[in-house]
Amino acid sequence: MKLYNLVRNEVYKMIGKKRLYITLGILVIIITAFAYGQYHSLDRTKENLSKRIGVEATSDWRNVLQQQLIDIKRRMDSPYLDDERRATMRVRAEQMQFYLDKDINPLGISAIVFSTKFIEQSIPMLLLPLLMIILSADIVSGELSGGTVKLLLVRGVSRWKVLLSKYITILLLEAVVLFFALVLSIGISGLFFGYGGWATPVITGFKVVAGKLVTSDVVNVPQWQYLMMVYGLAYIVSVVVGSVSFMISTLVRSTAASIGVVLATLMGGALLSTFLEDWKLPRYFFTANLRLTDYISGSLHPIEGMNMTFSLTVLIAWIVLSIAVSFGYFTRRDILV
């Protein structure tokens, strides 16, 4: 049987299962809740600023940004603020000052801006990784526990072809889910914020070195181009999480065990990266390198000293390792008994 036919069969099987529709349903609910919440949050912010600097002034983005900058600097002086939070606020304040100096409005909100921020936030909040786990965690273990994979193997189909078809299916479905996330977030949030702003300039290329913002490499790009950059990095994150889930699904027979191990790995790795940032080993975990969008937005990364090249190298190594372990184990394990 040709590889194309195997992939097509796998795609049909995934379309016939409920988890793809559950994943899309979760996206619709969360995007709607986020858009509605942000819309009302903006209203409250405008109301608070109106009381402090006047109703007319809230329509002037420079006035609003200067007021927010004053607020941040005042909060940074608090003796109760921890060092990590203070460093994050210092970088944010430096970014605001840069926008003011360059006369670029960073406060504008539209459907395309919401879609960009939604996918950026979905990575540290683990929403995107969890959706990819729902898609891929049992793609092999589910068929091993049900015995359906034997039907293919007894027909003389090579094991590597069977496994490769499943891996390609995961990559395709991850792209489909991200595409729907993009379409849904633009479609739903546009009802609240409008559909303009595609050519609005966005500054990217910020670097944070030793806790300070470096602006020597910043460039202006249109919002639509920045959106594509963010979703491209999100797809790399999806491939990494999908590859690790695929490997674990190959190593265990039980679907519940597969999902449990993947979730424990994701959560455990995130906790290690957060609480053991001074230890060098956690930075080689894939979970510590998933926040790729931080590098182009200029956000302060939780672990100091990491950069885009390092994180991409670590993530590619995890993809290669996951594929090697999956194929090495699946082609040798005793399945037909």
From the structure above, extract its key features.
337 residues, two-stranded antiparallel sheet, two-stranded antiparallel ribbon, 13 helices, elongated
Short recap of the structure:
69% of the residues lie in helices and 4% in strands. It has 337 residues and is mainly α. Strand 2 (207-209) and strand 3 (212-214) form a beta hairpin.
Protein architecture, described:
The chain is mostly helical and 337 residues long. 69% of the residues lie in helices and 4% in strands. The protein contains 13 helices and four strands. It has a two-stranded antiparallel sheet with strand order 1-4. The longest helix is centred in the first third of the chain and has 36 residues, at 18-53.
Helix content: 55-70%
Low-confidence stretches: none
SS element count, helices: 13
Q: What is the N-to-C succession of helices and strands?
A: HHHHHHHHHEEEEHHHH
Count of strand segments: 4
In angstroms, what is the radius of gyration? 23 Å
Task: Give the terminus-to-terminus CA distance.
Answer: 23 Å
Structural class: mainly alpha
Largest sheet: 2 strands, antiparallel
Question: What percentage of amino acids are in beta strands?
Answer: under 5%
The average pLDDT value, as a whole number, equals 84
- What characteristic shape results from the CA principal axes? elongated
How do the strands line up in the largest sheet? Answer: 1-4
